[in-house]
Write a structure and sequence with these properties.
The complex is a heterotrimer of chains A (191), B (102) and C (490).
Chain A: H1 2-27, H2 31-51, H3 55-79, H4 94-114, H5 120-125, H6 131-140, H7 149-158, H8 162-183
Helix pairs in contact in A: 1-2, 2-3
Chain B: H1 4-24, H2 28-52, H3 59-89, H4 94-97
Helix pairs in contact in B: 1-2, 2-3
Chain C: H1 2-6, H2 8-25, H3 33-55, E1 65-66, E2 71-72, H4 75-95, H5 99-102, H6 106-125, H7 129-147, H8 153-184, H9 189-197, H10 204-222, H11 230-237, H12 240-265, H13 269-294, H14 300-320, H15 330-361, H16 372-375, H17 377-391, H18 397-411, H19 415-441, H20 454-472, H21 475-485
Antiparallel strand pairs in C: 1-2
Helix pairs in contact in C: 2-3, 2-6, 3-4, 4-6, 4-12, 4-15, 4-20, 4-21, 6-7, 6-12, 7-8, 7-12, 8-9, 8-10, 8-11, 10-12, 10-13, 11-12, 11-14, 12-14, 12-15, 13-14, 13-19, 14-15, 14-18, 14-19, 15-17, 15-18, 15-20, 15-21, 17-19, 17-20, 18-20
The chains are: A mainly alpha (191), B mainly alpha (102), C mainly alpha (490).
Chain lengths: 191, 102, 490
C-alpha cells in the first residue's frame, strides 16, 4: 500500500502542475510563454505515462512532442516575429469560450464518473462474438507471454495495423511535399 | 494504483482547456498549441484505457503513436502555411494575416 | 497477396501519385500533360481492378475482411471504389485547362489529388478506428495543401483556416474514438458493434458522447452546420478544380464513413434513435443556414460553398431517416447513396461550366454571368440544367434524389423534416434560378464569346448526360445504390 500511495501522490502532483501549465498555454499573453507552458504540460504528461507503465510512449512523447513540435513552433514564432505584434491575443469571443470550456469539462467529468467502465471488458472478449478479435489475439500473444509495451507496440504496428502504418508514412510524405511546396520562396511571390 | 477515472478526468480537463484555447485565441500559432493540448488529452485517455481495461493487445498505445505522428505532420504543415501567409502579407503579425471569423 | 488484392484499386492510386512525383523530376520537364495522363491511366486501372473485384464477387459475402480485419471490402466499399476515382478522373480532365496557370506546380497538384483519392477509397474500406483516422488524415492533409495551392494571400488564408478548424475537429473526433476504445476494448468496428449490443445502461451516456464527438469530425468533412465555417472561405480561396473536388469528393467521403460508422457500428437500438435526432437537427440547420446565406452571395464560388452546405443537409435528412421497424437502414442508406451519385454528376457539371466561364472572363462574380446565353449558349445551357437539378426539379437526377430522401424521411415519420426540406427547396430555387435568369434574360456587358476547351467540354458533356440519364431513367442507379446498401440490412 505504501508504494501505491506514493504513486498516487506523484500522480496528483503531476496532474495539478500539468493542468496549471495547460491553463498557462491558453491564458499567457506572450506566444513564447505559451509555447514553453505547452512543453511543460507535455513533459508532465510523459511523466504520467511512466506512472501508467507506458515507458515507450513517454519517450516518444518527450522526443516528438516535447522536442520536435515545440522547436518547430519556436521557429515559426521567431521567423514570423509574432512577438513584435501588438494587440490582444484573444478574440472578442473569449467569454463564450470560457462558458464552452467549462461546459465541456463538466459534461466530460459527469460522463466519466457515471460510466461503468469495468463492465465493458467481458462483452468483447468472448471469441464467438468477434471473429476479428480472435484473429488478433492469436497473432499477438503467442505462448501467452507478457510482452513489454515496446514489444507489443512494435508487434501490433507491423501485423494488425500494417495498413495504417504504411498509410501514415504517406501522410508524412504528403505533408512534407506540401510544406516544401508552400513554404519555398520563389520569384513569383504574389502579394 | 491510481484510479482510472482520475486519469480520465485529467484528460478531460486538458481537453476542455485546449478547446477553450481554440475558441478564444485569435493567433494561428496559439490555436495550434491549443489543438496539441487536445490531442495530448486524447493520448492520455487512450493509454489509460489500454493499461487499465485491456492490457493486451497494446491497441491503445499503437493508436496514440499514430496520433503523435499525425499531430507532428499537421504542425509542420501548419507552420509552412503560416510562413507562406507571412511572406504574402509582409507582416510580422499573424493576427492581421488571419481573418479568422468564427 | 489476397490482402493486397482487396486494396488493389487504392494501391494503384498511390502508385500513380508516386509516379507523378518521380516523372516530374525526369527530363523533359516541359511536358506537364504527361502527368495528367498518368493520373488518368491510374484512374482507369483502378476502376478496372474494382470491376475485377466485382466480377469475382469479392464483395458478395458481408464480411470480406483483409489485413487482420482492418480492411473490409463489401458492396458498400466497391460503390465508393468506383465513385472516388470517377470524381478524380473528372477533376483531372477539368484541371487540364488550369495547367497553364500552374506552370511548374502540376506534379504536386496531381500527386496530391491522387493521394486524396486513395485516402478516400481507403476510408470507405476502413473497418477499424485507427485506419479511419489515418485515411481521414491523408485526405485532410492533402486537402489543406490544395486549398492553399495558389500561394496568394487569399488561398493561403483558406488553407490555414481549413487546417486549424480541421485539426480541431479531428481532435474532438479522436476523443470520441478513444471513448469507443475504452468502452469496447477494441478499435475494430465489429467488436465495437458487439460491445454496444451488450452495453449496460450505465454506458449509454458514454456511447452517446462518443457518437457526438465522431459526428463533429465527420460533420467537418461533410461541411454541415455547425461545422461548416470553413466551407465558403475555402471554396472561394482554393483553385476552382480543387473546389469542385472538395464539394463532391470530400463530402462523399464524409458520408461514406458516417454511414459505415453510424449505420454499421453504432446502429444498435439503444442509441440509434438519439443520434438520428441529432442528425435530423443538423440537417434542418444545414439546409436552412446554407440556403439563407447563399441568398446574399455575389461570388459564384462562395455561393456554391453555401449551397453545398444546404445540399449536405439534404443528404443528412437521409442519414437521419432510419425507420423504426424492420430493415431500418435499407431505405435511407440507399437514398443517401443515390443522392450522392446524383449530386456528384450535377455539381461537377456545374463546376465545369463555371470553370470554363471563369477561366475566360477571369471573374467569379455572378454579375458577370449576365447574358451568358448570348456569349456561350452551350455553357449557359449546361450550367442552367445543372442548377435545375440542384434545385430538384424534373426531369433531372436531383429531382429523384430529393424524392427518395424525402420519401425515406416520411417512412421514418419525420414529417417536420420533410416540411423544412420542401421550404428550403423553394428558397434554393430563388438563387439557383436567379443565376439562370441572369444568364438568359439580361444583356451581357461584353459581347465577346466564351469557348470551353475540348477536355472541359468532354467532362461537361459526360456529367450533363449523366444528370439527364439519371433523371429520365433512375432505375439502374437506384439498383446500384440499393445493392451497396444491403450491407446495412440486418
Amino acid at each position: 500500500m505504501q508504494i501505491h500511495s506514493t504513486e498516487q501522490v506523484v500522480f496528483y502532483l503531476l496532474a495539478v502542475v500539468a493542468v496549471a501549465a495547460a491553463l498557462g498555454v491558453v491564458f499567457a499573453q506572450d506566444i513564447i510563454h505559451s509555447a514553453l507552458f505547452l512543453v511543460v504540460t507535455l513533459i508532465l504528461t510523459a511523466g504520467v505515462y511512466v506512472l501508467l507503465s507506458a515507458e515507450f510512449l513517454s519517450l516518444v512523447q518527450v522526443l516528438v512532442y516535447g522536442g520536435g513540435v515545440s522547436i518547430l513552433v519556436m521557429f515559426a514564432v521567431m521567423i514570423t516575429r509574432v512577438r513584435d505584434a501588438r494587440g490582444p491575443l484573444d478574440g472578442a469571443q473569449k467569454p463564450i469560450a470560457i462558458v464552452a470550456g467549462l461546459a465541456i469539462v463538466t459534461v466530460l467529468v459527469l460522463m466519466i464518473s457515471r460510466t461503468e467502465w469495468q463492465q465493458a471488458i467481458p462483452a468483447v472478449n468472448r471469441p464467438d462474438e468477434s471473429p476479428v478479435r480472435v484473429q488478433r489475439v492469436i497473432t499477438q500473444t503467442d505462448k501467452g507471454q507478457l510482452m513489454s509495451d515496446t514489444d507489443a507496440i512494435g508487434h501490433d504496428l507491423f501485423t494488425t495495423f500494417a495498413v495504417p502504418f504504411e498509410v501514415a508514412s504517406l501522410v508524412l510524405l504528403v505533408a512534407l511535399v506540401g510544406a516544401i511546396y508552400l513554404a519555398r520562396g520563389e520569384e513569383d511571390e504574389v502579394t | 494504483m491510481i484510479p482510472m477515472e482520475h486519469v480520465l478526468i485529467l484528460g478531460a480537463a486538458l481537453f476542455a482547456i485546449g478547446m477553450y484555447g481554440v475558441l478564444a485565441r485569435r493567433n494561428a500559432v496559439l490555436i495550434l498549441l491549443s489543438v496539441e493540448l487536445m490531442l495530448n488529452a486524447v493520448n492520455l485517455n487512450l493509454i489509460a484505457f489500454n493499461v487499465y481495461l485491456r492490457p493486451n493487445p497494446a491497441t491503445g498505445m499503437v493508436f496514440s503513436v499514430f496520433v503523435i505522428v499525425i499531430a507532428a505532420a499537421e504542425a509542420g504543415l501548419a507552420l509552412a502555411i503560416i510562413l507562406r501567409l507571412f511572406r504574402n502579407r509582409r507582416t510580422a503579425n499573424v493576427d492581421e494575416a488571419d481573418l479568422l471569423k468564427w | 497477396m489476397e490482402n493486397l488484392d482487396r486494396i488493389g484499386p487504392v494501391l494503384v492510386m498511390f502508385l500513380a501519385a508516386g509516379l507523378v512525383l518521380v516523372l516530374d523530376l525526369l527530363p523533359p520537364r516541359s511536358n506537364k500533360r504527361v502527368l495528367a495522363e498518368v493520373g488518368l491511366v491510374g484512374v482507369v486501372l483502378s476502376a478496372l481492378w474494382t470491376a475485377a473485384l466485382l466480377i469475382r464477387e469479392t464483395g458478395g459475402s458481408p464480411t470480406d475482411l483483409a489485413f487482420a480485419g482492418t480492411v473490409i471490402v463489401d458492396n458498400f466499399t466497391l460503390f465508393f471504389y468506383f465513385l472516388f476515382p470517377a470524381i478524380t478522373g473528372f477533376v483531372i480532365l477539368g484541371s487540364l485547362d488550369y495547367l497553364d496557370q500552374m506552370a511548374d506546380r502540376a506534379a504536386e497538384y496531381f500527386a496530391l489529388l491522387l493521394a486524396i483519392t486513395g485516402g478516400a477509397m481507403l476510408l470507405a474500406a476502413s473497418n477499424d478506428l485507427i485506419l479511419i483516422f489515418i485515411a481521414l488524415e491523408l485526405q485532410s492533409v492533402s486537402q489543406y495543401v490544395l486549398a492553399g495551392f495558389l500561394r496568394d494571400s487569399r488561398s493561403s488564408e483558406a488553407g490555414l483556416k481549413y487546417l486549424l478548424l480541421g485539426a480541431t475537429s479531428v481532435a474532438v473526433m479522436l476523443y470520441g474514438m478513444a471513448l469507443l476504445y475504452g468502452l469496447s476494448g477494441s478499435t475494430a468496428l465489429p467488436d465495437i458493434a458487439a460491445a454496444l449490443r451488450t452495453a449496460s445502461d450505465g454506458q449509454k451516456a458514454a456511447y452517446l458522447a462518443a457518437a457526438g464527438a465522431l459526428a463533429v469530425g465527420f460533420g467537418f468533412k461533410m461541411a454541415i452546420v455547425p461545422f461548416q465555417m470553413w466551407a465558403p472561405d475555402v471554396y472561394q480561396g482554393a483553385p476552382t478544380p480543387v473546389t469542385a473536388y472538395l464539394s463532391v469528393g470530400s463530402k462523399a467521403a464524409g458520408f461514406a464513413i458516417t454511414l459505415r460508422m453510424f449505420y454499421g457500428t453504432l446502429g444498435a437500438d439503444s442509441i440509434a434513435g438519439d443520434w438520428a435526432n441529432m442528425f435530423a437537427l443538423m440537417a434542418a440547420l444545414s439546409m436552412t443556414a446554407g440556403n439563407v446565406l447563399a441568398l446574399q452571395q455575389s461570388n459564384i464560388k462562395r455561393l456554391f460553398g453555401y449551397s453545398s452546405i444546404a445540399q449536405a443537409g439534404n443528404f443528412l435528412v437521409g442519414v437521419a431517416a432510419i425507420a423504426s421497424a424492420g430493415g431500418r437502414f435499407t431505405v435511407s442508406s440507399s437514398a443517401v447513396l443515390f443522392f450522392i451519385l446524383a449530386y456528384t454528376f450535377t455539381n461537377l457539371g456545374a463546376f465545369f461550366a463555371i470553370l470554363a466561364i471563369s477561366n475566360r472572363i477571369r471573374s467569379d462574380r455572378i454579375a458577370d454571368y449576365a447574358g451568358m446565353w448570348k456569349r456561350a449558349p452551350l455553357l449557359a445551357l449546361v450550367l442552367a440544367f445543372c442548377l435545375v437539378s440542384l434545385t430538384g426539379l424534373p426531369p433531372t437526377a436531383g429531382f429523384w434524389a430529393k424524392l427518395y430522401v424525402f420519401n425515406a424521411a416520411l417512412r421514418a415519420d419525420m414529417v417536420w423534416l420533410v416540411v423544412i426540406g420542401v421550404i428550403n427547396t423553394l428558397v434554393s430555387a430563388y438563387y439557383y434560378l436567379g443565376i439562370v435568369r441572369s444568364m438568359f434574360f439580361t444583356d451581357p456587358r461584353v459581347e465577346s464569346p466564351v469557348q470551353p476547351t475540348v477536355s472541359l467540354s468532354l467532362s461537361m458533356a459526360v456529367a450533363t448526360l449523366g444528370v439527364l440519364a439519371i433523371g429520365l431513367l433512375p432505375g439502374p442507379l437506384l439498383n446500384v445504390a440499393e445493392r451497396a446498401a444491403t450491407v446495412f440490412a440486418r
